[in-house]
Amino acid sequence: MQQAVKVVGIGGSSRPGSTAELGLRVVLAEAARLGAEVSLVSGADLVMPLYDPRVAGCPPQARRLLAEVASADGVVLASPAYHGTVSGLLKNALDYTEELRDDTRPYLSDRAVGCLSVGMGWQGAVTTLAALRDVVHALRGWTTPLGVALNSATAGFGADGECSDPHIQQQLTAMAGQVVEFAEARRAHRALRAEAVHA
Ligand SMILES: Cc1cc2nc3c(=O)[nH]c(=O)nc-3n(C[C@H](O)[C@H](O)[C@H](O)COP(=O)(O)O)c2cc1C
Is the pLDDT assigned to residue 62 strictly greater than 80? Predict the structure, then answer.
């Protein structure tokens, strides 16, 4: 039987209980239900100096983030809309993936990436989702066909973090399914390639 795929969620809001993190947790819970091993790096975990390619070595938060990304088969990114685009917290974290440029799977390559954005309205949510997907492409990741844009003025999450809006829940569930399905397919493909090399 194939080993469980690993999915890491990266949450770009520093506000505890943010809609972005609630949505991200729903996606990760669904991925876990589908058999993935999941982890979350979010908010305070990402507070670190601005990435500077001239500086050798990474702070501990960046080392943890990079280890999580390097070992992941799938990634889920969640960002609030800040002035129409991705939060600085998340963008800085993604800039640190420059340190993975010489990996066997550089940056986000070979990984399924689901993107979730949250705005205080639709315009910011949608522009942020598009920006997130552009960044993923620049990092050679495979965005899932479905991205999810949420409006925090209407997004329904209860105090327990449960999603109370069936349509949003359905979208988050579908995106989790696409991340896990692609991650499993790529994992199987790598295993086949490795077998062929050793045959
Ligand atoms: C600095 C800053 C800039 C923001 N810019 C936008 C924006 O351009 N468009 C928008 O819809 N919401 C904007 N917002 C609202 C956030 O996207 C809001 O926090 C979002 O709805 C996420 O809610 P959450 O904190 O519950 O995750 C901004 C908030 C902050 C703090």
Answer: yes
Average pLDDT, the chain: 95
The one-letter code for the residue type at 157 is: F
Regarding the beta carbon of 116 and ligand 1, being less than 6 Å apart is answered: no
**Does residue 59 have its Cβ closer than 6 Å to ligand 1?**
no
Dig out the tokens for 160 from the structure.
């327990």
Question: 92 Cβ partners below 8 Å, 6+ apart?
Answer: 46, 48, 50, 51
Q: Are 58 and 96 in contact (CB under 8 A)?
A: yes
Cβ atoms within 10 A of the Cβ of 198, count?
6
CA of 176 relative to ligand 1 center, distance in Å: 24
Q: How far is the CA of 18 from the centre of ligand 1 (A)?
A: 10
Q: What is the pLDDT of residues 151-195, one digit of tens each?
A: 998 888 888 889 989 999 999 999 999 999 999 999 999 889 888
- The CATH class of the 6-198 domain is alpha beta
In angstroms, rounded to a whole number, what is the distance separating the alpha carbons of residues 20 and 18? 5
Residue whose C-alpha is closest to residue 10's, from 40, 33, 49, 31: 40
Cα 138 to ligand 1 centroid, rounded to whole Å: 24
CA distance 19 to 39: 18
Ligand 1, atom 29: nearest CA belongs to which residue? Answer: 82
